[in-house]
Specification:
The structure holds two protein chains of two kinds. Chain A is mostly helical. Chain A has one domain. Chain A contains 14 helices and two strands, in the order H-H-H-H-H-E-H-H-H-H-E-H-H-H-H-H. A two-stranded antiparallel sheet of chain A has the order 1-2. By secondary structure, chain B is mostly helical. Chain B is built from eleven helices and two strands, in the order ααααββααααααα. The termini of chain B are far apart. A two-stranded antiparallel sheet of chain B has the order 1-2. The chains are: A mainly alpha, B mainly alpha.
């Protein structure tokens, strides 16, 4: 595993140094977005690719953590703690909501998760935990103190989270938890009868993914500087996570990395087309699922299986 | 919340029950597809909203009455549903368990954004001479559309039941939903049956969309809320029983109207969602589940 990590560590160091070496701000921004997307996509892959849980509530965790940060900052408490708290609240919420949610299977579960961000959006539309009403009775908050944080600092935060999620995935997949998850991915029933506590592993993954997704969201909103219900709980987060994971390859370790790269690149290309770009993304999702459901990494895996590099001398 | 006591409560009660008809209607298509293909079409809510938008265009550009516009709406959605099933869902079912879900999600996204592009994010509604009228029954004031919704839901459901029982296609659908392999062995082309079932479900969505548009305003993203409501209806009412679907519809309708009564209109959907989640936590098979 050590040797595996070296290119990753080197890459991280390079990325960290880039903004200091005079990289144009627009590029830093794209990398920032890439890293946030990477974290969210990795977590979605954890759930969908390894636990068989198609979760459509990622934007719920993101918005929730973002609001926790906003509230925390409003009261004047330190931002970095707020970020972590955002993640904690998200995972606590995930834990609580798993009670009804985990009783459902497959599609039921998916629709169930869809309910969460909708409900949360309404909650935050109506609830003003701190501060007075904004002009026009808006439900938004500025993240106090966020302006003081420069782009480079936020970029490094995103770097920690994005690369952190990659390390986290590698760590999980190499651990006992990961073995169990891989078994569940391949065949849930068999895994269950082999003595794997499927429920516990799924719950664990759900809570972890909520935490990391939450933190990613909090950092994003820290950069953005303000938050409101419509943007916080925008389904586009879940779409991005899904698109990135599926293009890159669901149920593969590095799929989301490739996928997030492609998605950010797509955004860069399609940005001028506005709403049509989202339409195109939906189309791509459908087409990829139909034509190449294993994604890029998955297809490469299949090709490797067919044409192994080493000659097999025995069957 | 003022004086008036019981009569005040009666209004949301009656409205909730009548609204149940509309929600049952919306859920009908979802229930049909789920019963036959065991897949919950996440894009169903958006198909309903598509029905609303088509009617909207018919009113705006052709000056038609929305119910008449179903002459366009039903065939359009029927064909669309058929195409969706034939070209995407069919293959998706063979690929993996998650594929239909993800593809439906993709279609949902496409629809929502198409709506946004074509009809702008503005909130729309289908208004005619009669959508604003209301009538009073012993101190309870009810909008006329609610009653229309309810009666129509009854009519449609009875029609559907007769169709399923008496026509060859209908019985083919029932057979395929009970046992796919056995149906195939009996000579039923299950692919075609599935495509027709999906098409019928979409046509039902068109009808639901028109009446929905007359009852509530809608936006490009309304589809999600209606999907959730329809989902609630299916969960609560269970499958395969007209009564169950009606009761499920009423349960969701009542949750919404009573929620609005006690907590304010802005929170009414939230109440419905919470009720649904609690119900799922306590009794996931639904009240009438098998």
């Amino acid at each position: 595993m050590r040797r595996d990590m070296i290119p990753l560590l080197v890459g991280t160091a390079i990325l960290a140094a880039l903004p200091l070496l005079g990289m144009p701000e627009a590029w830093v921004l794209y990398l920032f977005v890439f890293l946030i997307y990477l974290a969210v996509a990795n977590m979605w892959n954890l759930l969908a690719g390894y636990c068989g849980l198609i979760a459509l509530c990622q934007h719920g965790f993101i918005g929730l953590a973002g609001y926790v940060l906003a509230i925390w900052a409003w009261v004047g408490l330190p931002l970095y703690l707020g970020i972590i708290l955002g993640g904690i609240v998200s995972s606590a919420f995930a834990l609580v909501i798993s009670i009804p949610l985990f009783r459902m299977k497959g599609v039921y579960f998916a629709v169930g998760t869809l309910i969460l961000p909708e409900a949360l959006r309404i909650v935050f539309l109506l609830w003003r935990p701190v501060g007075g009403m904004m002009q026009g009775k808006g439900a938004g908050y500025t993240i106090k103190g966020a302006i003081g944080i420069g782009l480079v600092e936020v970029f490094w935060l995103a770097l920690v989270i994005g690369i952190g999620s990659v390390f986290l995935m590698r760590f999980i997949l190499n651990s006992k938890l990961g073995l169990g998850l891989a078994a569940i991915r391949d065949n849930e029933k068999t895994a269950g009868s082999s003595g794997i506590n499927v429920f516990k592993l799924k719950l664990f993954s759900f809570v972890i993914s909520a935490f990391v997704t939450g933190i990613a969201g909090a950092v994003f909103f820290m950069y953005q500087g303000h938050i409101e219900p419509r943007v916080a709980f925008d389904i586009k987060w879940t779409i991005i996570a899904m698109l990135a994971t599926i293009i890159g390859g669901m149920s593969t370790r590095d799929g989301p990395v490739l996928g997030a790269l492609i998605v950010v690149f797509m955004y860069f290309l399609l940005a001028r087309f506005g709403e049509i770009s989202l339409l195109i993304q939906g189309m791509i999702l459908v087409l990829i699922m139909l034509l190449a459901p294993q994604g890029i990494m998955g297809s490469m895996r299949k090709i490797k299986e067919r044409f192994p590099l080493q000659r097999r001398t025995t069957l | 919340m003022t004086s008036g006591g019981l009569a005040d409560l009666m209004t949301p009660l009656v409205m909730g029950i009548l609204l149940g008809g509309l929600y049952a209607l919306i859920a009908l298509g979802l229930s049909l597809v789920f019963g036959v293909m065991k897949l919950i079409n996440i894009a169903h809510g958006d198909l309903v909203v598509l029905g609303s938008y088509i009617a909207f265009s018919a009113i705006t550009y052709l000056g038609m009455d929305p119910i008449l516009s179903l002459i366009f709406g039903i065939p359009l959605l029927f064909v669309m549903g058929f195409a969706i099933q034939k070209f995407t869902m069919n293959r998706a079912l063979k690929i993996s368990m998650e594929a239909p879900l993800i593809i439906a999600f993709g279609i949902s996204i496409m629809l929502q954004n198409a709506f946004q592009i074509i009809w702008t994010p503005l909130s729309r509604g289908l208004t005619t001479s009669y959508t604003l009228k209301s009538f009073t029954v012993s101190e309870v004031c009810i909008p006329l559309v609610y009653l229309l919704d309810f009666i129509l839901a009854l009519v449609v459901m009875l029609c559907l039941r007769e169709f399923l029982k008496r026509t060859y296609l209908g019985r083919g659908i029932i057979a395929a939903s009970q046992d796919r392999v056995a149906a195939q062995l009996m000579g039923i082309n299950t692919q075609r049956v599935y495509a027709f079932a999906f098409a019928i479900a979409s046509a039902l969505a068109a009808v639901a969309g028109v009446f929905l548009g007359m009852t509530f305003p809608f936006t490009p993203t309304s589809g999600v809320s209606f999907l959730i409501l329809a989902f609630g209806v299916v969960i609560i009412g269970g499958l395969g029983s007209i009564l169950g679907t009606f009761l499920g519809g009423m349960a969701m309708g009542l949750a919404q109207t009573l929620g609005g009564y006690f907590f304010g209109t802005a929170a009414q959907m939230l109440v419905a969602y919470v009720v649904l989640l609690v119900l799922l936590a306590v009794r996931p098979q639904g009240l009438f589940g098998r």
